[in-house]
Description:
2 domains
Amino acid sequence: MATQECLWLKRLIREMMSTLNHPIQIYCLSESAINIARNLVFHACTKHIETHYCFVQEKVLTHDIELLKIRTKKQVADIFTKALAKAKFESFCEVLGVINSKFPLRGSVKF
């Protein structure tokens, strides 16, 4: 799914700017998933993977995408899926550009 979304964005950017020739970088936690995508050789341990999942492999081979390993400590997507310590939560918010609003969340009337 991420691959399809990235390729759609790449086509959109290419239409607007006409120059986007480098592969899109997709970060992945799983070293095994990256290795499977880079290696088209059929293995007994991957025989359960259906052929329509080979889409990512095809896009890696055609250099449309590049799969990169990301360390667990740097995985910003964890902010959406895990309970995080305050410091890590705040640093991920900063990376995403989310700011702490100083305005009150509830309306009030002062006389």
